Amino acid sequence: MAHIHTGPGEYDLTVSAFIVRAPTPSFCGAQAPSQNRDSAVEQLDSLDPSRRRFVRPQGDGGGPPRLLLHRHKTLGVVMQAGGHVELTETPWEAITHEILEETGYEMSQLKVLQPPLRMDLTGGVHPQPLSVRSFRFGDEDHFHIDLSYVFVTDQEPLHSVGEDESEELMWVTRDELASIDTYEDVRAVGYYVFDHLLGEWEAVDCPSPTV
Length: 211
Prior knowledge:
Blueprint: E1 11-21, H1 37-45, E2 66-71, E3 78-79, E4 81-84, H2 91-103, E5 111-114, E6 131-136, E7 143-153, E8 169-172, H3 174-177, H4 184-200, E9 202-205
Parallel strand pairs: 1-7
Antiparallel strand pairs: 1-2, 1-4, 2-3, 2-8, 5-7, 5-9, 6-7
């Protein structure tokens, strides 16, 4: 959608999705955290560290995890899927329809990565984004505040991308990320996802976009 706040130096709220594909992206660590933080910490500390990881493909042509990127139709730069949060929707509603339109994935095909210690996703609590970043949009005197969420899947998208969306999608490994024509902050988030989140955060079912 078009920018909402169009005055010089104004900011729009956006959401983006870093989607990683790997066979069996299941978390083998703790379940939903306890209401008591000390109890949750004890539960995590009692786990074998090797179990607090996503199951990585081993042999049989499984290959390494790959990050889904596309070439932005306006900017011409390779980046993650995402878009504006409209005035009549929540960030989680926005990421739901942006993922469907720009990647063809339904939320039921994805799991969202969440830190082991977190609030329950009830009572209007949204999933926690990996980062909240502010940056200039292209060469314009306009800025975005972006909530970046991370998802994992072991499936192909059920749908084609939307009619007006970029059809130049690509799955890249960590090593390939170094040579991709993208913004440095996008590359930095990608590296952090590969190096930390896939081993430390839990994959949970995506909640309904409605409160």
